Amino acid sequence: MTTVSNLLTKRFRITLGAIIALAVITVSPNVQAQTNRQDRPNSGDLENAARASWQPVRDLSQTTIKRRPQSTQVRLVDHQEPTLAQPASTRTTVERPTPTKTASVRPMPSARKPVSARPASASIISHPVVQESVPLDGEIYFDPIHDGGCDAMPMGCGCGVGGCHGTCGISMGGCDGIGCSTGNCCNGDPMCGEYRDCDTLRPCVTICWPQDGWFSAEYLMWWQDGMDLPPLASTGRLSDRAPLANGTVLYGDDEVLDGRMDGYRFDFGFWFDNCHTWGIGAGFFGLDRETEGFSGGNDNSTLVRPIITVLPNLADPTALGDLEEAVALVNDPTRDHNGSLNIDVNSELSGWDLYVRHFTRGQSGCACTGPCGCPTAWCTRSEHRFGFRQVELDEGIAINSSVLIDQTPNPALSFVLNESFRTRNQFNGIDVGWFHTRSIDYWNFDIGLRLAAGNTNQQVRIAGDTVVNGTAPAVSGGLLALNSNIGTYERDEFSIIPELNLKLGYQLTDQLKATFGYTFLYWSNVVRPGDQIERIVDQDQIPNSNAPTPTDRVFPRFAFDNTDYWAQGLSFGLDYRW
Fold first, then answer.
1. Tens digit of each residue's pLDDT (9 = 90 or more) over 10-22
2. Cα separation of 197 and 150, whole Å?
3. Taking 90 as the threshold, does the pLDDT of residue 399 lie above it?
4. 136: Cβ–Cβ under 8 A, 6 or more apart, which residues?
5. Residue 290: how many CA atoms within 13 Å on its side-chain side?
6. What DSSP designation does 237 have?
7. Where are the domains of the chain?
8. What is the pLDDT of residue 406?
9. Which of 77, 192, 349, 480 is exposed most, by the fewest CB atoms within 10 A?
10. Rounded distance, CA 551 to CA 467, Å?
């Protein structure tokens, strides 16, 4: 009985469990559906969540099956393309999230066609937005290089040459240390050392500067060929003849004005075209008047003016007779002569030119230079010049002396002598030249060769007078300037003026350059005042009273005495281009 009871109890438990399980299975879908309806958010919440969690990604799902999309396409939403066989009713509508912030992307240099959007009728799915010209991961992007740019330093001469991008940097003068985009002009010529402004020509209603031009100013520190002078002051005769034998020359008998002469030089002009092929310019230079002199007398020392006297043949006054060293006393207390002597010598050089310049040839390349041997861009530019040039050399010698002779018991006798010898050389001629520039980094080296050929107008002016006892008028003639040579003399001579210019420059800014240079100038066939003085004097012409002096004497004589002239020196300046 007990066994039967236990068996019935066990079967009842199994039956009851099966019933409960069946009930749970039956009720469970309805509960789950109700739960899903309660927990699922509305469509607005889905959209907000999608916007917050959106990140741009690329579609990599088809990388092993399909060809990679074009490099210009970047998918902002990763998705799988629906198949055409799928019914439209079963497709899920996806809202396209709108990014709240996008990074600006620079377009690629190469042109790419935009991807056309699929027509709206083809699918109700919003396709991913495609951004063009965005480099993919690992793709290298370069800014486009434009030859002949205009906003960098003019030193950029051919930096576009392959491999010429120095590794030394700015401190070592590498090519990357300077602006290189102005390498070439629009026609391919190097703009070596030239600042190029690519703006078009400006209309000019009122007075204005030309579009492209240059201006330079330099300080000159030059030396010139010294002026030869005869002996003009001494302590006695320049011979062994007594009295006052074997005197010492105090001034003259040597070159003077051979020291430093300061000056200035300007050059300016403008270009007719943007590539700086044709231009017109003008220049001017001048050396300050250089002076030198002598002053003596009115003391206990002996001061005389050495001369050579001529004793003419009485039968022929123009014939040269005996010559002998003599002196004109200025100061000699032992002979009752008290006087002073002042000699002033001066020289001044100046010139100007007007020229047309024409670019002829340019080159650029790359070379290993500098302490580190890094690749460095270089360029050269050559041009010819043709124009007109004028140079003028003005020089003079002034000799002033006063002598008081004590003739006790007779009245004292005084003489005041004023003499001058002046020369002027003015050259006018055609000037041709060749100029070459080579630039490396910020440095450039210029060499210029010029040759002017033309006419030199030579002019000599000799004047002299004597005032006796302080009474007027003055008597014509002095000691070395007498009636036989007093006057103005002029003639024309053919001359050439070659000139060499060397200049080293350093670019301070795009438009401003500091320069240091050397110039040598040579001038053939000039006259200088020291060469026009003759010491042979006919004593009959020397005034000793207020009476007129003879006019039929020939000594001292005048004759043009040509010589050559040179000037050379250093220059320090600034060169500005616009």
1. 555 665 666 666 5
2. 6
3. yes
4. 58, 71, 74
5. 22
6. -
7. 217-577
8. 87
9. 77
10. 18
